[in-house]
Specification:
This protein is mainly β and 110 residues long. The chain is built from no helices and six strands. Strand 5 and strand 6 form a beta hairpin.
Length: 110
Amino acid sequence: SDYAFITITAMDAPVAIAKVTDGTTPITGSITSGTALTLDATESSDTLKTALTYQWTITAAPTGNLVKLVNPAASKATFTPVATGDYVITLVVSNGTVDSKTVTLLIKVI
């Protein structure tokens, strides 16, 4: 009889790395209302060097927030928070087969 051999290779999930910048410089601490922010995932990686896709999501925001992310499917998304309070933003990257673990950012706007 004939036999077929199948090799199954486990694929590592990509690693999502997220940071908040003013466009170039990382920002830490509280952020003043009206500050333009860049959410940067360009340091995210995949062991197979596969092209990554990105998904940024605002999962919680202060009451009255009307701000939406610009380019939420890009490695760099932007937004300018106006309402004061806490914003929770998540990032998931994918190599087309496996998703990364979710990375969560907490942004405090004063």
